[in-house]
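Our collaborator T.R. sent over the components below with a one-line note: 'Predict the complex.' Nothing else. No constraints on interfaces, no templates requested, no preferences about which chain binds where. So this is a plain run: every listed entity goes in together, and whatever single assembly comes back becomes the starting point for the next discussion.
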Amino acid sequence: MSFPRVGVIGAGQLARMMAVPANDLGIDFKVFAAIPNDSAAQVSHFVLGDYTNVDSVLEFAKSCDVLTFEHELVPQSVIKAVEAAGIKVYPRSQSFTYSQDKLEMRKKIAELNLPNPKWQKYQGEGCEIGFPLIAKLPSGGYDGRGVFQIDSEAQLQELHTKAGTLLLEEKLNFDYEISVMVARSPHDQAATWPATLTIQSDGICTSTVTPVPEISDALANKVQAAALEIASGISLVGVMAVEMFILGENFYINELALRPHNSGHWSIEGSETSQFEQHLRAILDLPLGSTALRTKFTVMGNVLGGEKSDMYRPYLHLMARAPNLKFHQYGKEVKPGRKIGHVTMCGENLLQLQQEVAHAVDYMNGVIDE
Amino acid sequence: MSFPRVGVIGAGQLARMMAVPANDLGIDFKVFAAIPNDSAAQVSHFVLGDYTNVDSVLEFAKSCDVLTFEHELVPQSVIKAVEAAGIKVYPRSQSFTYSQDKLEMRKKIAELNLPNPKWQKYQGEGCEIGFPLIAKLPSGGYDGRGVFQIDSEAQLQELHTKAGTLLLEEKLNFDYEISVMVARSPHDQAATWPATLTIQSDGICTSTVTPVPEISDALANKVQAAALEIASGISLVGVMAVEMFILGENFYINELALRPHNSGHWSIEGSETSQFEQHLRAILDLPLGSTALRTKFTVMGNVLGGEKSDMYRPYLHLMARAPNLKFHQYGKEVKPGRKIGHVTMCGENLLQLQQEVAHAVDYMNGVIDE
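Returned assembly:
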């Protein structure tokens, strides 16, 4: 019997949700967790260790046929050490660069002739972009961390003194933000899903709508084509989120995340193949699954920790109110602002879906109580 | 935090598939397995033990808020002991009787004024049903085991001598067989899914189609209403399959199975709420989920063990051929005729779905090689 062994560095909710299609496909699946109570460790086989420790990761990797990871914090040196040991690890270190280093990402997008916002590397002088502008730490940031709005030269200097080299970008007055999920296999097969509208609050995604409502067919095709070009251009293996700004009929690449992504959670219910199954198919070099939509619209809402600590009791009200609302708990302790789960609803009436998802999220975290 | 602890007696594929919605809902889920390599034990927390041993089951039950089971072999005495200890166990022992004892089931269906085939209890004399007839062991049989076609008085006597009391039933010349899945909660909420066509070979279900094609609306409604009446009549808590024979516009109750059932596997992809999630909602007395169809037709095919022992390699061909085919492996060793997995496909073109599912099943078990 030849079911492959897949190991995931990291044991958060992404690995937890990847365990489901792994089990369905019969894949021998385990996660490299920090503690036994990590989200994914609660529901799958796990090995404990520190992902920054090359020796521990190597030992784990040697018990796997393919290794992958679910967050951007794994050091390049660790991924390279696994590659050097001859073990398959996807995405590859050279691809992962574009997820970890935003300056390299901007260069690559320019090289691919795809639309960047105006940008520059900033090392203390020669700012060529008008204020207000966006300054980013080249690496280490996510969910709005490491991203700053800068209104003046003085603010810029202050940040530079503290943080060193920066990526500066023009602040686009965009109409909305989208994400295009794309998957690619070593065999060069690639597939995208229709683009997702991502609605942010304080830099954190709060909800998504798939497909993007009222996007023109031409633009919808262009953004999917762009995601495919990037996937090929960076030799992606696995799934990736390409986050973009939309301004009229134009799009601008915002960020790349080389992993299953919050903006792809809708695909568990909304697509014939979820991003988690697709990631497994891609890294195992299996034929990719259909990315067709199962429904006209899918709305996803993130449940962020609030005042309520009990996430079970809300089921009584919410399940009675909306029998087609789907819940995904991450098994995490409730902390204010922390992503502890998400809910999804599929259907035809977008306004109703958005109202129900917003109600559910607010009810779960205690913003409303009826 | 008040997420309940659910324990399942048995660790086969039904418990394995129940683990998915349990994790999504944040339920603390574990299975009572015979060996660590049991299907469900591979993918969830487990306790090892013997389900016929009252003390072991009681100890397991005491670590759970609600207990359930995934097969008919758990002795009534064990379930009653758990009830006597004040621990919630669903389905209840008095309901479970109708799954374990086919004579009691026939009496109950008659009492509910629902259509039985002609039947009688047989203890060695007074056979009132014409040959050929069907003789069943009142308990212990499933997947065609314990069911015999009897063509003569001599055969009947021979079986009776070996097996004791029998349930005799007329051999109906039915048009086709269906199953209606139904769920009911302690709160008295109940829900059915549209009926499923079940296609059998040698007494084993090989594939299903949901909804039943070409059934009249009137009959489709009647069989769902009958399933709801039975659920209420036996005080069901959990999900149940009501298997029926269809002859023209008439239906006859064939069997009851008080658990998630092979004929409900289609619901994982095909319905807004799968039978596994619904079973959990029901036994936890949560509001039941929507049983709406996600697609026009869902076809499920059982993968039975054949000559091939490698169930991974077929993915290369099958995934390339049918990108919307969904696989469910049970993690079981391949043995001839054993159910080791199933595949599901959703869509509009029933003929194409049936052809693809049949091809996949035959390719996986080695009947065809291209």
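Summary for T.R.: Chain A has a mean pLDDT of 95.
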